[in-house]
From TrEMBL, chain A:
UniProt name for this protein: Glycolate oxidase FAD binding subunit
Ranges where the FAD-binding PCMH-type domain occurs: 1-175
Keyword Flavoprotein annotated: yes
One Pfam family of this chain: FAD_binding_4
PROSITE patterns: FAD_PCMH
Coiled coil: none
The keyword Flavoprotein is assigned to this record: yes
Natural source organism: Caulobacter ginsengisoli
TrEMBL record, chain B:
Keyword Oxidoreductase annotated: yes
One Pfam family named in its UniProt record: FAD_binding_4
E.C. numbers: 1.1.3.15
Record protein name field: Glycolate oxidase
Required cofactor(s): FAD
Entry superkingdom: Bacteria
GO MF terms, alphabetically ordered: (S)-2-hydroxy-acid oxidase activity
Keyword Flavoprotein: yes
Length: 356, 496
């Protein structure tokens, strides 16, 4: 494992050549095909560089633990609005290792993504070292900027295939004063999707909507007290306490065991058909039905595709990961364009580890 | 005005008639070669630059766009896409040796899905028409540039346009789910999808804001939102800009993200009031409009909070809208700020830098010093919530030297924005206008990384050349280029 401490170390390392995999906290190491690559840790690139709560902007080193950042912004009554979570527990590891660089590079967004945007919507700027062994920057440190190509968008979710981000500037938002979860019990998937759709079609700023079979259908509201009360009165279900609500949203995360785990993205109106076609899998619906976690054995990818969705293989035994690509395959033209974009940042393919 | 554009290819110009004939074979009724008609396309919203195109073509189908681009690529002919021509950065400025590709005939709303909350529209549909298509069902499209009655969604995607509501609801990029894109070689790709966060590299995120350099957008899928139950606006007058700036900071510090938070300075207030007569206070140095939306309970509660913050920061006048008509009246002056200013000066030049909010008072002071130095007037309107400034430089193009002074003044403002930690453009784009200032923010290595993206989409650099990048490197040269240590032209200016 290489542990560079500076941009210069990274430039030197990449210019010497080889095949490299960027490693934050290792919480997602078991995602993707088994592969051989030199690991490059971002542990030496950790720390808060600049936090200006009044400007809603935070700049940190890529190796900074997510938990540390969440605690820091919480201390200023702020939040990472894209609601990231730690993948470690999904793979039997303790929580706490995930780094901000890894979270952004993997595009990890939680339940609130539905209303408040994804990881990519909150990365304002970055410094990185590309596969050419060169330092470059993209974006900026202000909340509104259209100067040049929006490289932060393509770095977020690139899984370390364009370069190593060394510093990230994130948009931070005020944390809500009050969070409320309305729980509707006893709905089947069809009724749950209908209830979530009705709530999301109404002007109630529902921040998150999930259906957990056996537990219920949760609709989250947040903001200032009088507003939350007024909106809660217009939704079905009964209002959970904040602690109960937090437990509900914790339970909306994917199951932590060793069954194969798929993450399906689809139009909410397709969720019912997808779930119905895979009766043997355990399912959890989030994003109003636009995200489905499925645990167990089944041809999830084919079913998702049949209904216009996409399936990512998040967790599986090694042999299955060697045989089934983790990312949903793309049409040939888009795939070829993606390769050209990757070669633009990484001409020699030093980040092509075979993981995807 | 002098602007260095790629030298026109005389060999292409010499083949103009043959090119027109070939394009006519693709779009029989949609080719314009009459010089008098072509003149209509000679500029966009940045009217200081004018150049009629060699030819214009107005396709109606994606297949035609693909055929046009494939032909132009094969023949080495440059193409400049155009939506409604309202760009304020010269993004749609034609070239003497290029075909102007007008997207106005792509004017249909193709599909609306309220359950999954998206609309599929053609790129020539105006921004406002998207909202109009869904408003009967209680929905709207959130990004609302002031030009929304005219500008096209395709142009919005290309510029990543914003509006007064993007503080809370985001820019175009945060509200687009997918596009159909035709690349310069005629290949048609779909980027993004109808659901959230599709697999693979976020190429959609790259295309939004790429200023027509990566491909021609032929279809756009946007997210639509339920229209808030109510909205309320506050009109707050301050005797100092510092007070108004402190109020903006106080609102954010209280955890409030208003739907919009706009500021105007004294000259802008006076120009707007003279134009729309809605009762703006004339004895203040800064006016804030703070809009809150949501259920009535929320608007009432937050209006009281904002009013208290304003009072604590020395507001000398405070009005809270009590009806929809009054709320719209508060906005009328702000929304008409550009035409209002054009009544007090023959010409104005609109700037678009973003700064960290806290630097607002000193940046305004520096702008007024620069106005004295350049001997020109300036009126300031800002999207104060996100630090996006629109200084409107007042000049008279008929007075010798004034245009040049206005440009020099504008450049000084943008340098100042970057110097205090901000950026050259918050929503209008780089275009030709800020192209040569890009090195203030990005060194050669940074720019080379951006230009290689261009090469991945358009290796012959035929689509909208001369925009965004100060130097046009051939793609082969960029592949070889190594800028060791990232030497910069402006080492003294704080960078990322
Ligand atoms: C009075 C006024 C007020 C304005 N207010 C705002 C504001 O509040 N916020 C804001 O962000 N902007 C504002 N603008 C700027 C402008 O309206 C926006 O940039 C708008 O998005 C441009 O859209 P358009 O259709 O006019 O594009 P055009 O000006 O025709 O083109 C702009 C760019 O987009 C490219 N392009 C156009 N269509 C396509 C397509 N289909 N495929 C690929 N590329 C394409 C062009 O090549 C060009 O580079 C304002 C302009 C004016 C004149």
């Amino acid at each position: 494992m290489h542990t560079p401490n500076s941009v210069q170390d990274l430039c030197d390392l990449f210019r010497a050549g080889g095949t490299f995999e960027i490693r934050g906290g290792g919480s997602k190491a078991e995602i993707g095909a088994p592969r051989e690559a030199q690991l490059v840790s971002t542990a030496g690139l950790a720390g808060v560089i600049d936090y200006d709560p009044a400007e809603l902007v935070l700049t940190v080193g890529a190796g900074t633990p997510l938990a540390e950042i969440q605690a820091l912004v919480a201390s200023e009554n702020q939040m990472l609005a894209f609601d990231p979570f730690d993948h470690g527990p999904l793979f039997g590891r303790p929580a706490g290792a995930a780094t901000i660089g890894g979270v952004i590079a993997a595009g990890v967004s939680g339940s609130q993504r539905l209303a408040l945007g994804a990881a990519r919507d909150h990365l304002l700027g970055f410094e990185a070292v590309s596969g050419r062994g060169e330092r470059f920057i993209g974006g900026a440190r202000v909340v509104k900027n259209v100067t040049g190509y929006d490289l932060p968008k393509v770095m977020a979710g690139s899984w370390g295939r364009l370069g190593v981000m060394t510093q990230l500037t994130l948009k931070i938002l005020p944390a809500p004063r009050v969070r409320a979860t309305m729980l509707v019990e006893g709905l089947d998937v069809a009724a749950a999707v209908a209830a979530m759709t009705a709530a999301l079609r109404a002007p109630l700023e529902v921040a998150a909507a999930a259906h957990l079979p056996g537990i219920g259908t949760g609709l989250r509201l947040q903001g200032f007290g009088p507003s939350v009360d007024a909106r809660a009165a217009q939704l079905p279900g009964h209002r959970l306490s904040e602690t109960e609500g937090d437990a509900f949203w914790q339970a909306a995360l994917p199951p932590a065991d060793d069954r194969p785990l798929w993450r399906v993205h689809c139009q909410p109106s397709a969720a019912l058909a997808i779930v119905a076609a895979l009766p043997d899998l355990e399912t959890r619906l989030d994003w109003g039905g636009g995200l489905i976690w499925l645990a167990g054995e089944g041809d999830v990818r084919a079913v998702a595709a049949m209904y216009g969705g996409q399936a990512m293989l998040v967790r599986a035994p090694e042999a299955m990961r060697a045989a089934i690509p983790c990312e949903h395959p793309q049409p040939a033209g888009v795939a070829a364009l993606s390769v050209r974009v990757r070669r633009a940042f990484d001409p020699a393919g030093i980040f092509e580890t075979g993981r995807f | 005005m002098t602007l260095c554009m790629p030298p026109p290819d005389q060999a292409v110009i010499a083949r103009r008639a043959a090119i027109a004939a070939a394009l006519r074979a693709i779009v029989p009724d949609g080719v314009i070669d009459e010089p008098t008609v072509l003149k209509a396309y000679e500029s966009d919203g940045l009217t200081a630059y004018r150049q009629p195109p060699m030819l214009a073509v107005l396709p109606e189908t994606t297949a035609q766009v693909a055929a046009i681009l494939r032909y132009c690529q094969a023949e080495g002919v440059k193409v400049v896409p155009r939506g409604s021509g309202t760009s304020l950065s010269g993004g749609a400025l034609p070239l003497a040796d290029a075909v102007l590709l007008g997207m106005a005939k792509f004017n249909r709303v193709l599909e609306v899905d309220y359950d999954d909350r998206f609309a599929v529209v053609q790129p020539g549909v105006t921004n406002l028409a998207v909202t109009q298509a869904v408003e009967a069902a209680g929905f709207y499209y959130a990004p609302d540039p002031s030009s929304q009655i005219a500008c096209s969604i395709g142009g919005n995607v290309a510029e990543n346009s914003g509006g007064v509501h993007c503080l809370k609801y985001g820019l175009t990029t945060n509200n687009v789910l997918g596009v159909e894109l035709v690349m310069m070689d005629g290949e048609i790709v779909r980027l993004g999808s109808r659901h959230l966060d599709p697999a693979g590299l976020d190429l959609l995120g790259l295309v939004v804001g790429s200023e027509g350099l990566l491909g021609v957008v032929t279809e756009v899928t946007v997210r639509i939102l339920p229209k808030p139950q109510t909205a309320k606006a506050l009109l707050l007058g301050f005797s100092t800009v510092e007070g108004a700036g402190a109020c903006v900071a106080g609102v954010i510090a209280a955890g409030i993200i208003p739907a919009g938070m706009e500021m105007m300075d004294r000259p802008a207030i006076h120009a707007a009031e003279a134009f729309v007569r809605v009762g703006y206070p004339l004895d203040v140095d800064a006016l804030l409009i703070v809009e809150l939306d949501g259920p009535a309970a929320e608007c009432d509660h937050l209006a009281a909070e904002v009013e208290a913050i304003a009072t604590a920061n020395g507001a000398v006048s405070c009005r809270v809208s009590t009806s929809e008509a009054e709320r719209l009246a508060f906005w009328a002056g702000r929304k008409a700020a550009f035409p209002a200013v054009s009544r007090i000066a023959p010409d104005y030049y609109c700037m678009d830098g973003t700064i960290p909010r806290r630097r607002l008072p000193d940046v305004l002071t520096r702008i007024s010093e620069l106005a004295v130095q350049h001997e020109l007037g300036v009126a300031n309107v800002f999207h104060a919530g996100d630090g996006n400034l629109h200084p409107l430089i007042l000049y008279d193009a008929n007075q010798p030297g004034q245009l040049e002074r206005a440009e020099a003044f504008g450049e000084d403002i943008l340098r100042l924005c970057v110097e205090v930690g901000g950026v050259l453009t918050g929503e209008h784009g780089v275009g030709v206008e800020k192209r040569d200032l890009m090195p203030l923010m990005f060194n050669e290595t940074d720019l080379a990384h951006q230009q290689r993206v261009k090469c991945a989409f358009d290796p012959d650099l035929l689509l909208n050349p001369g925009k965004v990048f100060p130097t046009l490197h051939r793609c082969a040269e960029l592949g070889r280029m190594h800028v060791h240590g990232g030497a910069t032209r402006f080492p003294d200016i704080p960078r990322f």
